[in-house]
């Protein structure tokens, strides 16, 4: 609905930009996060379709697919929340992502995420699913250990 509202005005003006934020979770089905990953696949598909529909209206439609970013959304993992080279903080990520607007239609928004994304795609899907299961089990374990340590 938001895209429809914004796109109609942009189409009338003959210019504009729409950025849909997905996630690296779109790269494979994710056990223990199945609905989240499925919604990201949907957003990617929607973005590519809208891009084609509005291409002749001067509207730039970008698919932004970050990997992990050190934000409160990742509070389930103290490791992710702390961040690091492969897990930038929100301001670092945003600075890089904004610089990509108008330059590339499909991006992770952060150069190191782009390298990771490439290597993730090289692995067969069945392997990515297995790795996703392992990672999500590890994140759950880390979360519950963190909750237990805070309770004592």
TrEMBL record:
<keyword id="KW-0496">Mitochondrion</keyword>
<keyword id="KW-0521">NADP</keyword>
<comment type="similarity">
    <text>Belongs to the short-chain dehydrogenases/reductases (SDR) family. 17-beta-HSD 3 subfamily.</text>
</comment>
<dbReference type="GO" id="GO:0005739">
    <property type="term" value="C:mitochondrion"/>
</dbReference>
<dbReference type="InterPro" id="IPR052149">
    <property type="entry name" value="17-beta-HSD3-like"/>
</dbReference>
<protein>
    <submittedName>
        <fullName>Steroid dehydrogenase</fullName>
    </submittedName>
</protein>
<dbReference type="InterPro" id="IPR020904">
    <property type="entry name" value="Sc_DH/Rdtase_CS"/>
</dbReference>
<dbReference type="Pfam" id="PF00106">
    <property type="entry name" value="adh_short"/>
</dbReference>
<dbReference type="InterPro" id="IPR002347">
    <property type="entry name" value="SDR_fam"/>
</dbReference>
<keyword id="KW-0560">Oxidoreductase</keyword>
<dbReference type="GO" id="GO:0016491">
    <property type="term" value="F:oxidoreductase activity"/>
</dbReference>
<dbReference type="InterPro" id="IPR036291">
    <property type="entry name" value="NAD(P)-bd_dom_sf"/>
</dbReference>
């Amino acid at each position: 609905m938001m895209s429809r509202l914004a796109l109609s005005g942009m189409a009338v003006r003959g210019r504009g930009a729409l950025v849909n934020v997905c996630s690296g979770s779109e790269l494979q089905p994710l056990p223990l996060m199945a609905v989240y990953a499925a919604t990201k696949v949907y957003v990617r598909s929607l973005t590519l379709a809208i891009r084609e529909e509005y291409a002749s209206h001067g509207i730039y439609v970008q698919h932004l697919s970050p990997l992990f970013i050190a934000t409160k959304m990742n509070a389930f993992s103290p490791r992710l929340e702390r961040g690091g080279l492969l897990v930038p903080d929100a301001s670092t990520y945003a600075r890089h992502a904004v610089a990509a607007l108008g330059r590339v239609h499909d991006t992770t928004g952060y150069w190191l995420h782009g390298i990771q994304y490439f290597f993730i795609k090289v692995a067969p899907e069945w392997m990515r699913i297995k790795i996703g299961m392992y990672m999500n089990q590890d994140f759950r374990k880390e979360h519950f250990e963190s909750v237990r340590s805070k309770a004592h």
